[in-house]
Write a structure and sequence with these properties.
126 residues, four-stranded mixed sheet, Glutaredoxin, binds FE2/S2 (inorganic) cluster, alpha+beta
């Protein structure tokens, strides 16, 4: 069946960088408050500089629903979620995770926060 094919054959990994921007005063924060997408651009530069162009794809992402932990980045296919990522973290993520295969532990989102409505950092539903 077609879905059993290796759809990631072209790219070994995809790095999804949230570039969502919300209106000021929104109830949830956004990862790209100034709308300039500096973090995503920085990832593209670092991936290219590491010689990974063609094997690692950096993608812009809309809201990944981890807003309270943003800026948020997720790497697939291994589904490693990073939170509070800044431009100064990018070279470490590229070198440690994307080149050497060791996710950056200090930036990992807690399992109890990922894709769950019970995350203690989310605002209560009204
Ligand atoms: S705005 Fe980035 S995860 Fe929601």
């Amino acid at each position: 069946m077609f879905w059993e094919q290796d759809f990631l054959a072209k790219y070994r990994q995809h790095v999804f960088v949230c570039i969502n921007q919300r209106e000021p005063g929104s109830p949830r924060p956004s990862c790209n408050a100034d709308g300039k997408s500096h973090l995503q651009v920085r990832f593209k530069q670092a991936v290219d500089a590491a010689g990974l162009k063609g094997s690692v794809r950096v993608n812009k992402a809309g809201c990944l629903d981890q807003c309270e932990h943003g800026p948020t980045v997720v790497v697939y296919p291994e589904a490693v979620w990073y939170g509070h990522v800044s431009e100064t973290d990018v070279d470490e993520i590229v070198a440690s995770h994307l080149v050497a295969g060791c996710p950056v532990q200090r930036l990992l989102l807690a399992e109890g926060c990922i894709n769950t409505g019970s995350c203690e950092h989310r605002p209560p539903k009204t």
